[in-house]
Design goal:
- The protein is mainly beta.
- The chain has two domains: 118 residues; 266 residues, Neuraminidase (6 Propeller).
- 2% of the residues lie in helices and 47% in strands.
- It is built from one helix and 36 strands.
- The strands form nine sheets. Strands 4, 5, 6, 7 and 8 form a five-stranded antiparallel sheet that branches. Strands 29, 30, 31, 32 and 33 form a five-stranded antiparallel sheet that branches.
- β23 and β24 form a beta hairpin.
Amino acid sequence: MLFSFGPSANWSNAQVAVQSVGTGERHNLLQEGTSPRYAPSGHLVYAQRGSLIAVPFDPQRLTTTGTAVPVLEGVLQSMSGAAQYSISATGSLAYIAGGTQVIQSRLVWVSRTGAEQPLAAPGHTYVNPRLSPDGRLVSVDIREQGGQVWVYDLARETLTRLTFEGNVNQTPAWTPDGKRIAFQSNKEGPVNLFWLLADGSGGLERLATSEYLQAPNSWSPDGQLLAFTEFNPTTGWDIWVLRLSDRKAQPFLRTPFTEGAPRFSPDGRWLAYVSNESGRNEIYVQAYPGPSGKWQISTDGAAEPLWNRNGRELFYRSGGKMMAVDIATQPSFAAGKPRMLFEGPYVPTPATIPNYDVSLDGQRFLMLKPVEQAQAAPTQIDVVLNWFEDLKQKVPTGKN
């Protein structure tokens, strides 16, 4: 069984893997690939940034046996990584011409009643906008030919690139003092946790080292703990907490289910997160560091949890709806009934982490609104007959 896995927020950095249905044995085959297919010609074909790549593959040993070579450019591929092509057993290739689809958006303020106020920042493929602790700056990653962290100054209306090392620098998380920004980066191999000074001086500094993909989510109020997620091939996405003093991490939730988007409460005593343990994503809260019971906050499917900075309200999104729940922690934890604040066509999260932020007073939401772009729908499917013969010439397998 061939499949791809990795950060849904950036499928350009996904990996291709193969797993034996009989034994469960698994091999990670390639970096940066999606939509893998096995061709009876003896090739593994996969998509990468709107192109098809082929590499010789041994289905008995479940391993590649040669060098990957681009074999076709201009195949329609969505931001989710899905590539529009298919291979027949008789050697034909069918595909839709195009390239990587890019969805641009604009930064907009939205009031609790749904009134919009657009920002002056130009349209880009923005993801994960984060307000600085003083509310003056917005860090955001821009997904165009990879991903980089940028900072937008709300008063000066300037957009400045912050990261330059590596082609995957994303999911920014401000430290509580506003001096640094943590993010995930592939600067030194696997996508791990790094940070750098918010003014751009100095370079990237590694926070954690792992063979698995990591993504930062939120800091404790004192800036000493960083809640993050890590993808383990065995357990999937888990929640960990990194202790800054000694750079050691410990798991908070590590189960067969998918957990994500951990958010420390403003007082640091609670952790909100997303889990699909019920069969769909819902928002939960547990005491930190625990152990304790958990409280389900959402009732109709949810993701993207964020605390009001007064600690008495928790926000999340359910489809296109922005929801709010009153929270009390004294004398014991209690959650109110979810209520909708507004609904709109704002860009949803590419994973479970918030794709929006909340103003310091909790009265406005920094959302991403899609830029309307006239794109013609595909009108034809291209078919290449006897494609395997061309494939064998471009990527020899060493077999007759």
